[in-house]
Structures are given as C-alpha cells and as structure tokens.
Specification:
Layout: H1 2-5, H2 10-20, H3 25-37, H4 41-49, H5 52-55, H6 59-71, H7 75-88, H8 93-105, H9 110-120, H10 125-137, H11 145-160, H12 165-177, H13 181-194, H14 199-212, H15 218-258
Length: 266
C-alpha cells in the first residue's frame, strides 16, 4: 500500500524486506521502479537486474529497465531486454526501431537481423528504413548491388509511410552520393516542409544545390542551418542543466534526511 500510494516510507519498508530476503524479486522490482522515478538509473539497474522473475512479463517495467540501461551505456545488457519487449509487444514499431539502434551502437550484426525480419515483413517501413540507413553508413557506392538495395529500401519505406522523415533524409543522402542532385533536393524539401529546422535536410539541400549549380538559396540556408544547430545545442545544454539541478536537489534531500535527529551516523 505504501508503495502504490507513493508514501516516503515505502523505500524503507522495501529495503528492510530486501535485507531479510536479498533475492526477493518483487521487492527489487518495486525499488527499481522507485529509483527510476527518482531518475537514479544506476540504482534502478541494480534492482531491476535482480527482479527479472517479477518483471519479464511486464512491458512497462522492462521499458523502465531498458531506458536506464541505455542511459548508463550498458548497450550489450539492453539488447536481451529489448528482445523480450518485442516478444511482448510485437506490433510496436517504436520498440523494434530502438532495438535496432542499440544493436547498431553496440556493433552487433544488425544488418543480418533486419534482413531476417524483412523476410517476414517485406513492406515494413521501419525495417526498410533501417536497412537503407545501415547500408548508407557502410558507405555503399553507386553502381553496386548494395547501393541499389539501399535506395530500393528507402523508397519502399516512403511508399508505405510518406511522412517518414528519416527515410526521406537517407534517400536524399543516397541520391547525393549518386550525383542525383535534383532528386536529393526534392527529398530534402519534403522533409523541410514537415520540419523547417531539420539539420540533416538543410545540410543535404545545401550540398545538392551546390552540385546543381543553383547557389542563390545557399546563403540563407547556411544561416538557417547554423541557427538550427545552435538551437539544438542550447536545448541539450538546458536538459543537462536541468538534470544537474535535479541531482543537486536529490543530494540535498538525502543530506537533510541523514542529518535529522535520530538518523544513524556513519
């Protein structure tokens, strides 16, 4: 009851339970959830690791677990948790996309996994985009089968989801690599209609206009790209400052709690 109501003594009760029964998975799951709410991912991961029996059928708890694994850069550990979430939520494309991103960053053979999944869902826009992105990052060159595969996958993704900005961006990048400036311009303009500050689209458009010999728009676009980049950095700095403030507040609370009369001194 204390846990569900969010009472401050819930953690103390759960800590005592874990002290009495160190392998009790439900208590660890609850402590992991409390730590997640406090944005203490290191502590959350410690508890979630010991609560698999309690959380492996609960997508909401697994998502909290994998979020903290990702934030603490434990990419290898995040992959099996993501795989379990995809089993529980097979139709959730956000989870499949996040899994592919983690696999890619962990240097797993995500290309083989995407190919395998495309055998089952050949028209899936996310999977087709991921294949195009992976091949593009490999540096596939025009005139090769892999390059044509990348272009075809990006086009298929857009056919199935015309508003998929990431697919338009990767197709624009591939067109640029092939010297197809006008096609790259068209893709970039589609993205910028949806998001005028998309940095990738602005960059691709500048490069494509240069290749096409049409330079009249470039100065204004360069200025827009600089502003978009600055704004993105400012947002990231604001987020980091907010996190530092939250951490400071939490530390102050912990210090105050430890200094209360009756608290045990170390």
């Amino acid at each position: 009851m204390e846990y569900n109501a969010g009472r401050p003594d819930a953690r103390a009760l759960l800590d005592r339970l874990v002290a009495l029964s160190p392998r009790e998975p439900t208590a660890h799951a609850m402590l992991g959830a409390l730590a997640f709410r406090d944005k203490d991912c290191e502590l959350a991961v410690t508890h979630f690791k010991q609560s698999w029996e309690a959380i492996n059928g609960r997508p909401e708890a697994l998502i909290e677990y994998v979020d903290c694994l990702f934030q603490t850069r434990r990419l290898e550990e995040a992959i099996p948790v993501f795989n379990r979430i995809t089993e529980l939520l097979p139709s959730n494309w956000h989870v499949r996309y996040d899994l592919a991103v983690v696999q890619f960053r962990a240097n797993h053979n995500v290309e083989a996994d995407v190919h395998s999944r495309l055998q089952e869902s050949p028209d899936d826009p996310i999977l087709n985009y991921l294949l195009a992105e992976i091949l593009s990052r490999k540096g596939v060159q025009p005139g090769t089968l892999e390059f044509q595969e990348a272009v075809s996958a990006a086009r298929r993704s857009i056919q199935r989801n015309p508003d998929f900005v990431l697919a338009h961006n990767v197709l624009s990048k591939l067109y640029l690599r092939a010297g197809m400036a006008h096609e790259a311009i068209a893709q970039s303009r589609l993205v910028l209609k949806a998001d005028p500050n998309d940095q990738a689209a602005l960059y691709h458009l500048i490069m494509a206009l240069r290749k096409s010999g049409n330079s009249s728009e470039i100065p204004a676009l360069v200025q827009r790209l600089a502003q978009a980049t600055t704004s993105a950095r400012e947002r990231e700095a604001d987020i980091n400052r907010f996190k530092l403030v939250e951490q400071g507040v939490k530390q102050d609370k912990d210090t105050t709690s430890s200094q209360r009369p009756g608290s045990t001194a170390n």
